[in-house]
């Protein structure tokens, strides 16, 4: 990005200071708002909407995020397995927590279920988690205002 | 951040701005391209402790949970909401019944002692469960914009056959 100047012509000098100021401010802005917790999200999951779903005040203790797809599979880290198949992955997680001196009963399982998933599948997933020793669960929803009257019987 | 003019006449050092501007623009392009607007997400706590055989008998003082039955059509859509013996039209009515039962602003003792059990059909779409949890958990006060809590203890009934 080097600009040549013609010989004999007076050199035009652009004041770069405001541009550099602005550019650094933009970089600082993007660096501050960059989201490093992107691993907890998954674009395939369309979360249900709730007006009361507020972000937690304090970070969850030892959160374990499970994504339940509309096809009934579970995405845990890089793996996509069936609900029954997630058991051995969770057992590995329990061993890891115990080796770290943490109690799995105090860990929180975050369930990011797709809005089209079946409720029975969510319950099955919770049961598998209970069987390996987890007791605390949170259901994640997208914070947005939706009229409760819109979701009526038969809609 | 004013950068001084290069003092050529005085034999000063000319500051090369080009590489810095190049890298700064590359950084800017990177951040702009990777920028995603993500909707805020929130959580609902679910109480699902493992019931040991010795803990199977409930405390005598404990109130029985309020059972809400959600039935589904074969395609997963909501077929009915049953609150006690009453069939409700929508989740707004469910919230009204909860406010009627617990009061518009129940105190901590009421919130602590009240438990809701959701009894849902296997094929019910999950979004209706979240709507039911939203309806029983509380509501946003239109005057203050604050959330008024109704119930914090929510659990699922044993899953029905799929």
Structure in words:
The complex is a heterodimer of chains A (155) and B (162). Chain A is of the alpha/beta class. Chain A has a six-stranded mixed beta sheet, covered by helices on one side. In chain A, helix 3 links the parallel strand 5 and strand 6. Chain A is elongated. In chain A, 26% of the residues are buried. In chain B, the strands form two sheets. Chain B has a five-stranded mixed beta sheet with strand order 4-3-2-5-8. In chain B, strands 6-7 form a two-stranded antiparallel sheet. In chain B, helix 2 packs parallel to helix 4. The radius of gyration of chain B is 29 Å and the shape is elongated. The mean pLDDT of chain B is 82. Chains A and B meet through helix 1, strand 1, helix 3 and strand 6 of A and helix 1, strand 1, strand 3, helix 2 and helix 4 of B.
Topology:
The complex is a heterodimer of chains A (155) and B (162).
Chain A: H1 17-33, E1 49-50, E2 63-68, E3 74-76, E4 79-81, H2 86-99, E5 108-113, H3 119-132, E6 136-143
Parallel strand pairs in A: 1-6, 2-5, 5-6
Antiparallel strand pairs in A: 2-3, 3-4
Chain B: H1 18-34, E1 41-47, E2 66-72, E3 78-83, E4 86-88, H2 91-102, H3 108-113, E5 115-120, H4 126-137, E6 138-140, E7 147-149, E8 153-156
Parallel strand pairs in B: 2-5, 5-8
Antiparallel strand pairs in B: 2-3, 3-4, 6-7
Helix pairs in contact in B: 2-4
